[in-house]
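Can anyone check this?
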Amino acid sequence: MWIAHARGIDVFDATTAQPIEQLRHRAVDPLSLANAEVRDLLIDRAGWVWAGTFGGGLQRINPRPPGLQSRRFDPLQDAPLTQLSALTLSAAADGGLWVGVAQNGVVRMAPDLSIREFLRSDDPAQGELSGQQPSGLVEAADGTLWVATERGLYRRALGASSFELVSGPDFLQGAAVRRLWAGSAGELWIATGDGLFRRAADGRVKRLANSSGQRVGGPINALALQPDGGWVGGSAGLFRLDAERAALIPVEREVAGQPLRADVLGLLVDRQGQLWVDADGLHRVVDDLGSRVRLDAISARHGFVDVAFGANLLDDSDGRIWSHRFMYDPQGDALHRLGRAEGANAGTGWFRAFAPLPDGRLVFGATEGLLVINPDRFEPWTFEPPLVFTELRVDGEPRPLGPLADSLQLRPGERSFALEFAALDFSAPELLQYRYRVEGRDTDWVEVDADSRVANVGGLWPGDYRLQVQGSNRSGRFSSQTLELPVRVLPLWWQTPLAMVLGLLLLIGLTAVLVVWRERRLQWAKSRLEADVQARTRDLRALSAELQRKNRDFEEASLTDPLTGLRNRRFAMQEMPKEVALCLRRIEAREPAAAGHNDLVLFLIDFDHFKLINDRYGHAGGDAVLCQFAERLRGVFRSSDHLVRWGGEEFLVVARDSDREHAADLAERLRSHMATAPFVLEDGSQVLCTVCIGFAPFPLLAELPLSADWEELVDLADHLLYAAKRSGRNAWIGLFPERADALPERSSDWCEPAMVRSGASRLLSNLPEGRVLAALGETTERVALGA
């Protein structure tokens, strides 16, 4: 029950008639009644009390139990304090609070937040602390009060009357102190603008580095101590505190698979062991992976993107997370903003100025006093404000629209309107949110804030629509009720159904005429295009045939030796893999008894003393001999065999689908023909030349067709060729491996004399076997020495 009178307002319990509160005008408090003489009272739909005063205007009062209270500076009760800007806080052993006050010193408050002790900064009795402004303070378990200023660290022992200087301004390497924490082992943790320090109980001070001993700098904003270490946050990121080694271990942060780079402003390990992080918004650690943590971005999920939660994180007995700016309830996943309407009237909050009290209250320092939160008495704002239309403009011109209007009709030609609306929540109208849509046209809501609460609707075609508007309360929760306004847009004459039908018929007729004309035009263009295409096609076919012929000629030239007309080495490198693959397929398909009758036989042929021909008859004479030799090769071998000028006066013949047992006959035919038929030069001179031949079959062993490739076979034939030369020239040597169990590492080792003598390989030649074996031994020895 509220009673207004000439001295203010008295509030009584309506059941017991006991007084609850007295509201009076106080000249030193701008938030008190503006005038003592209250003439009228009104309770609105939200439950707020409006007071009309005589000469003091209209004021609004929140009658609900205050979950948030502001302990503001009172010049009368707090004297000789000149202000109450609470820079740093620490809980006191008696259940009260230590407060570092800007430009005043340190005060100790009782549990009821009245000032019990004032340590003035200009009081010489404070010893070394005199004249200093505190930047951090903490009361240790043994009753020692620690205070940090820009000039050093000070200590007042329990029962002492003054402070002593413990460390000078350089004891932290010149870094400014931001906050102090007292450890359970008598140590002191010191957060600075350039790293974290630990002062041991014996007075030794150490800067904390990372696990590699590297310096960790930058401002330190938060420390959450645990029995086994804890967590540290600052501009350099998030760290795990290894208290035993006094080391900071970097921890990567990840939100929805993306790294989080924002500064860590606040940390809290709640009573259930859950880690909370304020880094441009509140985050909850959902997965601790050691060197990396995964975070749930709570603030961003509730629409507060890149907005700090408040840095000063505390929790209550119900598990809710608090700061001086927000409260988050994990059980209902609800985020509440704390402002003046909730009772936060202590000014702008100071980061790192906060402390919990033993009775469960949470205290935060601010520029104009202390914000005191009693979590048990806090009630979220659930009021659903009514929504009304306030102003209408059609095509930019104002038009009357009463608050009880049930519809809107736009005249022909009018296609747009702007309708202003308002939610009647006067507690914090600047925090209200709105959204609207036009049913029948829009599928999504258009969201606007309190500064632009207008539905701008344009481009409406004649017809019936329905404008829907919703508004939120100051907590951002939209009302379950929707304000609707039927809208009818009248058509112009050409927008009527009859005009549209006539226009459609006219359009159909014009379209039919256009289609006929277009078809004839297209038919004529098609005939011309077909004629052009046929002519171009003939030209392109002729050009394509000519290009294909030239490509074939170029390809043939690239694979042919220009002097002899035989194939060149490039041809062999290109075709031999195909011949080998074909041969292997035939081996797989035929019966074992047919092995050796469809193989490849490689002959490597070289002139004897060809250099003497060039020296005596010149290079022209040598070229004539090579050309005639190519003709003789064509006479000895089949047209299906590959005849290749391997290089200089050396030739490679690949006899395809041959019986390896007939290879010696071919070699002898070529040798004897060369030895008995002289070459005739252009000047009539006759030159008799002999050749040496080395040959071997592919595969070397029918049982092991993959034991050697064709290039190894050429190498084996080369060994046989040079053995023929060392045997006296004008000779041929062939080799046929017989035993698979004697397979050597290299295919060329088949021609070692020991392999022949043991029967592992069979030797064929037009020369005596003894001379050939001696030459093979010399060849093998020279190859080994060269290798």
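Reply from J.R.: I decoded it. The first helix runs from residue 298 to 301.
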